[in-house]
Design goal:
about 300 residues; ten-stranded mixed β-sheet; Rossmann fold; binds S-adenosylmethionine; alpha/beta
Length: about 300
């Protein structure tokens, strides 16, 4: 469990009255390695020094009308959403150290735009990683959407890059190889295949007994991979859209320092970092409503519509 500095106070300090910084006033949780601030990332980012963060991971609201609780808005007009995106992306690039890395998890449609914004900020493109989606909804008149995009940029030449290996995939029924490797199976590296830019092995976090929040919790496996590729123990990782705190939980496990922002309810994050069991609000109530209520496939599994 995370070593915690208890920040329970009867009232949140007011910068104007108590002479504390806006960042200190927003502090919602503190551990030995990290700090979580509750507030709008556009107000918190300016409090972070330029060139101070090794790795920034962002999984922003997708503008799909999800209910994140506490009135967090997730349905802007497309122009307003892009303007808002350009503001936080500019801050994100500013706080990165030279050589630092940025990963943005989003729908392909929006990561195309974010790529343009990052190019304009002289960030260096590394990869468009396709993260396989299990069970999305088919859409009439379009190809079947089967991946989320994970953009990977660096601020100049990367300071950290770990070329990871993944286990050689095997058939889960017969235990045999699923590819023949052109007859060169024996020459494969004993520690597995080089990680590619197509990730088929990231599980969704959909089961109610393991979710922290109803909407959009990412798998720890995804975050572990990102942190292992582009950071080292002791580095500083920032996530401006905390959600259920996946980035912070993984940063703790991998001994990275972390800075987190979350505009909505921080309790799921705090509970998670304190080692409490997941508890998602009852179905169709509050935060659970829009994130969970989705059609089911013929097998009963929930489907995700990427374009609504
Ligand atoms: C897609 S979720 C992130 C999920 C997270 N990656 C996880 O694994 O749990 C986006 C989060 O951003 C938060 N958010 C939305 N607008 C924000 C803003 N302006 N500043 C900070 N957080 C914001 C939402 O409340 C939501 O929790």
């Amino acid at each position: 469990m995370v070593q915690v500095t208890d920040t329970t106070v009867p009232r949140r300090p007011d910068p104007a009255v108590d002479g504390v910084s806006a960042l200190d006033a927003a502090l919602a949780f503190e551990s030995v390695l990290g700090r979580l601030y509750q507030g709008d990332c556009l107000q918190l980012f300016p409090e972070i020094d330029a060139d101070s963060v090794d790795l920034l991971f962002a999984d922003p609201p997708f503008n799909l009308g999800k209910d994140y609780g506490l009135g967090v808005k997730d349905s802007l007009g497309e122009t307003d959403y892009l303007t808002w995106t350009s503001h936080w992306i500019t801050h994100a690039a500013r706080v990165l150290k030279p050589g630092g890395s940025m990963f943005v998890f989003h729908l392909p449609k929006w990561n195309v735009e974010i790529g343009h914004l990052l190019n304009d900020l002289a960030m260096v493109f590394r990869h468009w990683i396709a993260v396989d989606i299990k069970l999305s909804l088919p859409i009439q008149g379009r190809l079947y959407p089967a991946h989320y995009s994970l953009l990977y940029y660096t601020k100049g030449k990367p300071r950290r890059f770990q070329n990871l290996r993944v286990p050689i995939p095997i058939c889960r029924h017969c235990g045999g190889d699923i590819k023949d490797y052109g007859g060169h199976r024996g020459k494969l590296h004993p520690q597995g295949l080089n990680l590619s830019d197509v990730w088929l092995d990231i599980p969704p976090v959909r089961h109610r007994s393991t979710k922290r929040r109803a909407a959009n919790e990412l798998s720890e496996k995804l975050l572990r991979r990102v942190l292992e590729i582009a950071s080292a123990p002791g580095d500083v990782v920032l996530d401006p859209f905390g959600g259920s705190g996946t980035t912070f939980a993984v940063a703790e496990q991998l001994h990275r320092h972390w800075i987190g922002f979350e505009l909505g309810d921080c309790e799921p994050i705090v509970g998670r970092l304190r080692g409490e069991q997941p508890r998602v609000p009852p179905k169709n109530l509050g935060d659970a409503r829009k994130g969970m209520k989705r059609p089911r496939s013929s097998t009963g599994a929930r489907l995700v519509n990427l374009f609504d």
